[in-house]
Amino acid sequence: DGTEAGTRMLKNVAADHISDSNPREMHNVNGTLFFIADDGFGDTVWTTDGTPYGTTRIALPPEAGNVQTFDEGDSSAVTGGLYYFLAGQPHNTDLWRTDGTKAGTFRLSDNDGTLLLPYRNGLLFFGHDAAHGRELWFTDGTASGTRLFMDVTTGPQNSAPFRPTVVDDVLYFSSGHYNRRTTDGTPANTTFFAEGISFPNDSPFVILDEWLYRPDPFVSRVHLRVPKYESVQRFDQKPLRLHVFGSSLLIFLDRALWRSYGTQESTSLIKTLPAGSCVGESEIAVTNGVLYWTIVNAQEGSVELWRTNGTSAGTALVESISDPSATCRSLFAADGRVYFMGTDAFHGNEVWVSDGTETGTHLLYDVNSGPDSSDPREFFTIGDTLYFTATTPNAGRELWTSAPFTCVTDCIPKRRAARK
Predict the structure, then answer these.
(1) Rounded to whole angstroms, how far apart are CA atoms 361 and 224?
(2) Which of 43, 194, 229, 368 could form a disulfide with 67 if both were Cys (CB 3.0 to 4.6 A apart)?
(3) How far apart are CA 107 and CA 397, in angstroms?
(4) Which of 66-70, 172-176, 239-243, 298-302 has the least mean pLDDT?
(5) Is the pLDDT of residue 400 over 90?
(6) Rounded mean pLDDT of 230-244?
(7) What is the pTM of this model?
């Protein structure tokens, strides 16, 4: 709650071991936090209700092996009230599910990849069998409801569908350089789009209305129903990222922010920015119609927190929140606030919070008192409770929790002192 007493380590999961437990892959399952952590006997799934005694380990059978997580993709997912995860060996994983009980925790299928994609109250994943090779599979969370979703390449040859994306219960994916498809899993409703239009498989894209947008090397769009290709806007540099924002598209460049409704006439500059926009997957956060991101301002020697509502007047610097040695910080937004790892000379890397205003941006809690850093990350909220991981000298990286923060008068002097 912004006080020392109101912010605490939730549980020292690896208390009897030298290493930390490294909590990660956090998800909300019906009001309970599920996460993966290592108690010294291997990674497994844990649950918590926000209290130390309510933080418990889900025991897996010996044949499951360790829970596996991978840097290149999400290794867990929640859909239909179930927590899905991968267990086994690093290059030989199986798909598992749990509802938090021993009886509700069991293996569903072999898994050949890190794709776990919620779809129609179930899950799409890369499965494998001798008859079909590596293909897209679907599960509704039951053994009988786990099946081949689509044999993209007929027979035992692997198809490796690329960049599968779900929009409005329709799956979009690439199965070859010219093969862009949409499907609901049935042959009758599987169609090609943009056939004959060349763009690389690894080109990132977003979907808005009936158009697919991509920044390669300028912003262009491809219609999803008819073979139609259009250039939206050319820039002097390749956009860093496209982001769907309401009914429009935000286009992030290194030194500018643009907005487009899909045509050249509707594409306009929102604001010129300092160089160094950080707009990776974890460096954008949206809450209450406001988007936050960070910029490394090399000229000022700082990292800045910015906000936009999609208009020029509503795009502004919130505050410079880091010293010259800092880098981009992951952001997490909920209920009108954005949480992040902020830095100043007096406190090191610690938990900061912002409501989008300068006066409302400040240090939330100094986990390691003084200039030593706790390097908080993995921010997550369930209801009124904020969870995050932080590192302390005695416990390593463990799970911490705090009640929702309400700014009181003594937080303002702390923020100003930090800025000095």
Answers:
(1) 42
(2) 43
(3) 29
(4) 172-176
(5) yes
(6) 92
(7) 0.84
Residues in the chain: 420
64-79 mean pLDDT: 83
**Facing residues of 84 across strands?**
77, 97
Residues paired with residue 171 on neighbouring β-strands, in sequence order: 166, 183
Which of 245, 197, 238 is closest to 221 using CA atoms?
Answer: 197
Residue type, 313: A
Amino acid, single-letter form, for residue 409: T
Angle 253-255-256 from CA coordinates, rounded to 5°: 65
Residue 365's contacts (CB-CB under 8 Å, 6 or more residues apart) are: 2, 4, 7, 350, 351, 402
Kindly list the distances between the CA atom of residue 222 and the CA atoms of 123, 136, 191, 198, in Å, as whole numbers in the listed order.
27, 24, 15, 11
Structure tokens at 62: 């010996």
164-197 confidence digits (pLDDT tens): 788 877 887 776 655 667 777 777 777 776 665 6
Cβ-Cβ contacts under 8 Å for 155 (sequence gap 6 or more): 131, 132, 133
The span from the CA of 290 to the CA of 13, in Å, is 36
pLDDT at 38: 92
Structural contact between residues 403 and 28, judged by C-beta atoms closer than 8 angstroms: no
Question: Using omega within 30 degrees of 0 as the cis cutoff, is the peptide bond preceding 217 cis?
Answer: yes
The structure tokens 């990222």 sit at: 241
Starting from the edge strand earliest in sequence, which strands make up the sheet with 162-167, in order?
162-167, 170-174, 180-183, 191-193
State whether residue 121 is helix, strand or coil: coil
